[in-house]
């Protein structure tokens, strides 16, 4: 687990091993979400990166009969 320090300007630096593992780049937009006492940073990625994400997913399952 990595730790970081909040700067006097309330800035944080994402540790190098996390930046590299998640392929984060300088200037990349992030969403910030608060869950109680926890803060999460979620990279905002272009929709083009999602292309093919669900490839191979099976769609042959029973659907709920809620479409009337």
Describe the structure.
The protein has one helix and two strands. The chain has a two-stranded antiparallel sheet. A hairpin with a 2-residue loop joins strand 1 and strand 2. The relative contact order is 0.11.
SSE topology sketch:
Blueprint: H1 16-21, E1 30-35, E2 38-43
Write a compact overview of the structure shown.
The chain has one helix spanning 16-21, and strands at 30-35, 38-43. It is mainly beta and 68 residues long.
Question: What brief labels describe this structure?
Answer:
mainly beta; two-stranded antiparallel ribbon; 1 helix; 68 residues; elongated
SS-derived structural category: mainly beta
Shape: elongated
N→C terminal distance: 50 Å
Strands of the widest sheet, in order across it, are: 1-2
Order of helices and strands: HEE
Tally the beta strands: 2
Would you tell me the overall average pLDDT? 85
Number of helices: 1
> Main beta sheet, described?
2 strands, antiparallel
The portion of residues forming beta strands comes to 15-25%
Cα-atom Rg, whole angstroms? 19 Å
The residue ranges in which pLDDT falls below 50 over 5 or more consecutive positions are: none
